[in-house]
Amino acid sequence: MKNLNLSGCGTALVTPFRDGEVDYAAFSALVDRQIAAGIHFLVPLGTTGETPCLSDEERIRLLEITVEKCAGRPVVVGGGTNSLVQTVRSIRLLDPYGADAFLIVVPYYNKPTQEGIYEYFKAVADVAGKPVVMYNVPSRTGVNMTAETALRLAEIENIVAVKEASGNYAQISEIIRNAPEGFSVLSGNDDETLSLMATGAAGVISVASNIAPGMMVEMVEAMQDNDLPKARALHHRLSPLFRNCFVESNPVPVKAGLAAMGLAMEEYRLPLVPGTRKTYELMRKTVEDLGLL
Length: 293
What we know:
Elements: E1 8-12, E2 17-18, E3 21-22, H1 24-36, E4 41-43, H2 56-70, E5 76-78, H3 84-94, E6 101-105, H4 114-128, E7 132-136, H5 138-141, H6 147-154, E8 159-164, H7 169-178, E9 184-187, H8 193-199, E10 203-206, H9 213-224, H10 228-244, H11 252-260, H12 277-289
Parallel strand pairs: 1-4, 1-10, 5-6, 6-7, 7-8, 8-9, 9-10
Antiparallel strand pairs: 2-3
Helix pairs in contact: 1-2, 3-4, 4-6, 6-7, 8-9, 9-10, 11-12
């Protein structure tokens, strides 16, 4: 299964809402916009998609729409929880609907040991039946998956990649340096994409590409082509977007930016609420400065 070679820019898709319901028309239009921009793969039902607040039926339909429109591009669907039983249930729920891989987060809240993380992902891989992408994001989970643990897991046949959002450059560099053939390391932070790709990462799972998919694709492809001057210029141009997408909890700022562009409502499900007026105005200016208004 290591033949699923994830590389380039993948978008961690938002889930738009209208009047308390999933806005499937807006979601479909957002996916179309991603594809028109040349995005390399798509990631529905992740953190950015407010997945814990979605019903099973909503999750299935969002995945169906993504797969229907992707035209051969890989789809990596979020399926992780902090319980092996519930993660297996999620995998079995979503498995029939055409995703190419599952994105599975390090279990949050429980704070497992490294051996617990290893055994958890090993058990997930045993039942997944598809490639698995691990997701390390200590700022949300409360625990870091070390390079040693990630590399042990990378030896399992159908664990094909890690989305690394630890912010620990030395740790991520060690994974890149020692990863087995066919295993991809993907940046989980937009602002680290250039530096990690320069070190050998395969790409990024991006939040910012919800707003600027074309420029993110250009930057990543410039790195793939070893055109550092072009990639550096795009990185600096996009840096305010990278920063401002996290002035409040993701996806609050990115949805504010999409609302300013007329692409989605600034609507959420509790416990998330709309951002401050200051955040909206900041995101509006950010997208305006990028020429997207």
